[in-house]
Every structure is written in structure tokens, then in C-alpha cells.
């Protein structure tokens, strides 16, 4: 979940990835005093003449506190302006509709970032490779009308409820009834449960219906698409509301909420150590692990002169002073992807920049070792890591200060996401002693993440754990069995597709052919990173990514009754 803005790390991708972020990425954005340029501002002019409309509608603020009908003109219904995008690109005009098979609506679900803009329905990391390409095929090959929508998540982008301290931010914070939220209740209505109901409310709204002809607006089938956290929402919307959402594609969706997500970094080790996945090697992993262990040993030894050498070798911001300031800075440096940043979840096998993917990084590490077999591992990592070209920020307190401060245009999405980790999901990527983490084991335990929750949002560890357990119970975790109504659950598990790349650490918390409900459909994509197949289509895309898209298309075709049934589970290794 790149909580919002992708930042330029050591491992860069050709296009910004939409994936759940590391704290290391956030602290780098703090260091640079900037966030990724906001696409909705930069691309506004570019898309002003396109076929994508940017619209808003009055969304209910709290779906769980009142039975007031917000579809009626009712001043008691508290709402906020939620943004959505729409295009009729693949809908024919009335005079052209002779022979058109039928109509379907595709909804690209918004989430933690990057913020949506008109490009979401043109060409973006969100839903291009699966949803938009499929709409094109349905329209041109099957003669269907496909309405395409994208719904921005509450508290992200421009869909913020109004706050007392945000009057100068303009209309993007205004709620329809002008009732303000005080600072103590800033995130009161931010949750995945509200977001799932937002999707249902939007589908049932007059605003979405206005885009259909009056003759078919009651019979249009809706299929949702999303990757990462939006993939979770896409799947949960179908699971809990099968009467409204006809089918759902959940790409790289970690539905098993977990506080201590140590398997994330276990999977990073797998990617670094196995050539068959993304071009790693055992030698690469050995050097990576031993390099971190060597640095950790020096830091724990306390020799100031040696620590100064480490700080200089790895270009630590503010040098040894910051490493010696407190224990948390030391742990942050070696227990997180800070000392040697590496972005496995956004790995792009076809990138052509230096050190831009796992294979190129591992090749450089191994080549450096071959050139001098006696060179210490930490020196190898320092030599290669310096090619990133900027100092490494290790001040852990910066994170707490960042999340504790009032939201700004640059920090709002990041703060919203981290709040959700504290109140719903956890997903804290630890590096414990009894793990296979490739960083310095024992230097990142979950208490460090709990501390951020408590100091930034006033949510202590006990509440964080209870909230995560509540999330698993509410949605059913891997099993997808919430509540006691098994008949409803079974219906919601039909036409529900989970797609995962086996190089993606987030796949550890998603549903696959061996884990989770046996009623859902799954696709396993060898060598693929975090929902890479939803990104814009490129000629250089790996064959498995191309085949994954085709498999998604076949499943949706089956749901719409276009061709014969497809296998419930695709493992593209055997395709």
C-alpha cells in the first residue's frame, strides 16, 4: 500500500507504483520536503478536453449511525462531497446501439494512493491493465456498452470531510451541510467499513444512475476492480453486498489484517535469494544479510570512531551524531530498509535504469564480491548504496512529528493511511530475531510501530491489537466468512477473483489456491510484484503479466456469460 505518494528510492520503477508504503519511504519524502507532484493538479489541463468527467456527489458521512434516507432532500443527513470520475468512452450513442449485446459498469476503487485524477480512466497504475483494457475488448470485440467509473476514497485526494482548521483549503474539504468536524474527531469517519458502504451508496445513487439510459439503469451489473488496499475494498464490497456488486477483481489484496507482519520481510529474503523468482541469488542474500549484521554489531559495540566510519560509509544524514542520539535511530537504520533501501513490492523486471530492480541490484552486489572476495559485506553494500545519491535519514522522531502534525496537502494521504493501520490493519513489517528478515534481525519489533500510533493519534497498543482483531472478525480474514449468515457469504464469494504475484510480499496475507475460501477464484502470477498487471500495458511486460491479464478477462467474460467456464484457479506456471 504505497500509502500515497511513491517516492524515488534506490529501486525505481518506470511508472509510480500504487502499493502499501514502507515507513522508510515516508521518511524519505519528509527528508526531501516534498511529496510526489499531485497529478490532479498537473494533469488537469491535459485531460480537460478528454472524455473523462470529474464529478462529486453528496456521500453520507456515517453509514452506521442513522437510518435517515440521504437520497431525499433531508437537512438532517450529514454528508460530504465525494469525488468520482466517469467516462462513456465505450458506450455507444443511441443511434449506434443496434446490435449492442448489453450494458455493464466497471468501477475502479480508490484507496491510499496515489491520489486519483482523470488519468485513472485513461492510463494509470490503478486499473489500466485489467479494467480499462477489458472494457476496450468488451466494447470492440463483443459489442457491449461499458460505463467506467472511479470513486475516490473518503479522507484521500480531494474527498475530505470539512475540518475546523481547513477553511482555507477550498471546496475540496466542504461537506454539503457545512457542519464542521473538530480536531479531536478529524478521523472519526475514516474506516474501510465506511468506504465499503460508500461504494454501495454510490452504486445505488441517482448520481451514478444518471449516466445510464432510463430503460436499463436498474439492470446494469456492476463489477469492481482494485489493487492493494483498493483490492481489499473491491473484494469486501462483493463479499458483503452481493445484491449490489455483481463481481469483483481483488488484485494483490492482503485481506488478513495482522499487527506483526513479519512474513513480509521473510518474503523479501525469498526474492533476494531465489533466482527463479526475480533474479536474486543465494550469494546476493548472504551478502545482504551479513552486511546488515556487520553494521549492527559495530553500532551495538558502541565504539564511536567505528560508528563514525559507518555513518560516513553509508552517508547518514547528520552523521554519527544521529546514530548515537538514541537506540531507536540505530534500530531504524539497520532494522528497516534504510541502510540499503530496496523496493521488492514494486519490482519491474523490464526496467533499464541502473539498480532499478532486484536482479540488477543482486548482480551488482555479486559482481562487487567477485572483484574482491575478501571485501566485507558491509563495504559492498555501502559502495553500491551510495549510488542513490542522497543521505539516509535515520531520525525516528521525524516520523512521529510528521504524523502528529496537522494534515497538509502533502501529508494528508500519508496520515490517513497510517491512522488506518492503527485502527484497522496493522501490517507492520517487522524484523524479529526468529525470522528470515534480510535486515538486522531483532532491530525492528512491533512496539516501534505501536509507539507511532500512540504518540501520533493517541491509540495505544492494546487498542491497536483489538482493532485489528475486530477487522478480521468483521470481514472474515482469509476465510472470508464474516458473521453467521453463511448463505449470504457463499453468494458473496461467487464471482470474486483474487490475483497475486508470487514475488509480492503482500501475497502472504492474500487469498490463493491453497489458502482461504474454496469458493473464490484465484490467479497466481509467477515473478510478478504488487498488482503489476494493473499498470499501463507495455511491450516489455513479462509474459506472465500478459497471461494474467488474459486470465482476468476470461473470468469476467465467464461472469457475464460470454464464453465457457474457466478453471477456478489459474497457476500461470502451467499455462
Task: Explain what this protein looks like in three dimensions.
The chain has helices at 23-32, 39-42, 44-47, 128-142, 192-203, 206-209, 229-240, 263-273, 275-278, 282-301, 304-313, 319-325, 327-335, 358-371, 377-385, 396-404, 412-425, 446-457, 461-475, 486-493, 543-559, and strands at 52-60, 79-90, 103-109, 145-151, 221-227, 247-251, 258-260, 426-428, 496-501, 521-525, 569-571. The chain is α/β, with parallel strands linked by helices. The strands form two sheets. Strands 1-2-4-3-5-6-9-10-11 form a nine-stranded mixed sheet. Strands 7-8 form a two-stranded parallel ribbon. Helix 1 (23-32) packs across helix 16 (396-404).
Strand-helix topology:
Blueprint: H1 23-32, H2 39-42, H3 44-47, E1 52-60, E2 79-90, E3 103-109, H4 128-142, E4 145-151, H5 192-203, H6 206-209, E5 221-227, H7 229-240, E6 247-251, E7 258-260, H8 263-273, H9 275-278, H10 282-301, H11 304-313, H12 319-325, H13 327-335, H14 358-371, H15 377-385, H16 396-404, H17 412-425, E8 426-428, H18 446-457, H19 461-475, H20 486-493, E9 496-501, E10 521-525, H21 543-559, E11 569-571
Parallel strand pairs: 3-4, 3-5, 5-6, 6-9, 7-8, 9-10, 10-11
Antiparallel strand pairs: 1-2, 2-4
Helix pairs in contact: 1-16, 5-7, 10-13, 10-14, 10-15, 11-12, 12-13, 14-15, 16-18, 17-19
